[in-house]
């Protein structure tokens, strides 16, 4: 059974030179599984994720023939209904924690804010739940981190705080936008294990947006490849390294290989008909 169904999603931004379509006719379904979305910067991956939460604001405009989450029509839902969905049922981990964490609030206050305001928990219970979330993302000294300011955290620590914040309400669908981009390889493996457990144990759906094709191939169940606002290829994650579309092959060819040639990596060949869609 599909948790999310999207048909013909279009996202348009009005500019001084006319409308620009950032997402053009994207369609896919998501069950309680791990769906990867890959593509170069500007291909529409993040905009697609933000559209599910209706986080595109004017001059942006979202249109879709169908965008349904667990039976709820997201295209017609009111802003009040969307606020009730964001957090408890739909959550998104943004790519850069420096822009997602409030610089003038301590980390603990930000982790507890939703629990106090939305869930009406007492401060002691909210603090206990926030600390448990930090421990779940492998933060060794959660009490100290609760009292820290965002600028006192490393990039990797900030990213783990953001993941903890999104997981506190135990959403049904998590959209993770480059959640491991600021992490070293060891911590990256720990975070991926956490996300994997959430999908397996809680039955959560996960949209994993990344530039790391090898990581997506190892972690996800299915992969969507985006180019210029469109999905150009959909395949099982295990088949990603054997992709047939010229664009996907071009992305794979750009990956450095251990023991490979010392020559400059090739760039994408955009002379084919596919590049002009």
From TrEMBL:
Transmembrane feature ranges = none
Tell me a GO cellular component. Answer: plasma membrane
Q: ABC transporter domain: which residues?
A: 4-253
Domain of life, source organism: Bacteria
- SMART domains for the chain: AAA
Keywords, sorted A to Z:
ATP-binding, Cell membrane, Membrane, Nucleotide-binding, Transport
Picking any one GO molecular function of the record gives: ATP hydrolysis activity
Picking any one GO biological process from the record gives: transmembrane transport
InterPro entries in the record: AAA+_ATPase, ABC_Ni/Peptide_Import, ABC_transporter-like_ATP-bd, P-loop_NTPase
Query: Which Gene3D superfamilies does UniProt cross-reference here?
Result: P-loop containing nucleotide triphosphate hydrolases
Q: How does it sit in the membrane?
A: Peripheral membrane protein
Q: Does the keyword Cytoplasm apply?
A: no
Q: Where in the cell is it found?
A: Cell inner membrane
PROSITE patterns, alphabetized: ABC_TRANSPORTER_2 (PS50893)
The UniProt similarity line reads:
Belongs to the ABC transporter superfamily.
PANTHER family, per database record: DIPEPTIDE TRANSPORT ATP-BINDING PROTEIN DPPD, OLIGOPEPTIDE TRANSPORT ATP-BINDING PROTEIN APPD
The entry's protein name is Peptide/nickel transport system ATP-binding protein
Identify the species of origin. Answer: Rhodobacter aestuarii
């Amino acid at each position: 059974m599909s948790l999310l169904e999207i048909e013909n999603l279009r996202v348009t931004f009005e500019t001084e030179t006319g409308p620009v379509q950032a997402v053009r006719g994207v369609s896919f379904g998501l069950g309680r599984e791990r769906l990867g979305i890959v593509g170069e910067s500007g291909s529409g991956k993040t905009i697609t994720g933000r559209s599910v939460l209706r986080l595109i604001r004017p001059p942006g405009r979202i249109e879709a023939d169908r965008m349904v989450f667990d039976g709820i029509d997201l295209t017609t839902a009111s802003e009040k209904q969307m606020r009730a969905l964001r957090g408890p049922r739909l959550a998104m981990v943004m790519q850069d924690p420096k822009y997602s964490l409030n610089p003038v609030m301590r980390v603990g206050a930000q982790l507890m804010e939703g629990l106090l305001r939305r869930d009406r928990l007492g401060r002691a219970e909210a603090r206990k739940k926030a600390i448990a979330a930090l421990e779940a993302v492998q933060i060794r000294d959660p009490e100290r981190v609760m009292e820290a300011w965002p600028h006192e955290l490393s990039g990797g620590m900030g990213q783990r705080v953001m993941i903890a914040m999104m997981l506190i309400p135990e959403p049904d669908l998590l959209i993770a936008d480059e959640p491991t981009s600021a992490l070293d390889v060891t911590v990256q493996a720990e975070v991926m294990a956490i996300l994997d457990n959430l999908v397996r144990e809680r039955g959560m759906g996960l949209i994993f947006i990344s530039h790391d094709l090898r990581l997506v191939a190892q972690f996800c169940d299915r992969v969507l490849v985006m180019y210029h606002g469109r999905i150009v290829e959909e395949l099982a994650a295990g088949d990603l390294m054997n992709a047939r579309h010229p664009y996907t092959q071009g992305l794979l060819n750009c990956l450095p290989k251990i023991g490979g040639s010392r020559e400059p990596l090739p760039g994408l060949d955009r002379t084919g008909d596919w590049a002009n869609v």
